[in-house]
């Protein structure tokens, strides 16, 4: 259960690591007013149908992704919050060694029935 807005970052990472589409979709607020932007140019989705299609494609890749936040900033406004997390990302190929890289996760989360869920999430790989 997401007791703090920062938990939304961990919950989505766990869903990505497991390549669990239902768990990932459950990390987003209900309804169609949701969005996601990944680090690749074509990784954008607006609405539940696009989000489902995009994450479904990502989870079919031959590697899983995850991230561990080490520095999280949260600005809370009632039942909504802006979350910005510096993280260590990992690509875990099905048949190879993990590749680690800097990663950032940010976006708007909303408290729904005691759990912080993404309204819009953006992940990016900062260049050095």
From TrEMBL:
Ranges where the SnoaL-like domain occurs: 7-126
Gene3D superfamilies associated with the record: 3.10.450.50
Return the SUPFAM superfamilies for the record: NTF2-like
What InterPro entries does UniProt report for this protein, alphabetically?
Answer: NTF2-like_dom_sf (IPR032710), SnoaL-like (IPR037401)
Name the UniProt record assigns to this protein: Nuclear transport factor 2 family protein
Q: Which organism is it from?
A: Paractinoplanes pyxinae
Query: What lineage does UniProt assign to this protein's organism?
Result: Bacteria, Bacillati, Actinomycetota, Actinomycetes, Micromonosporales
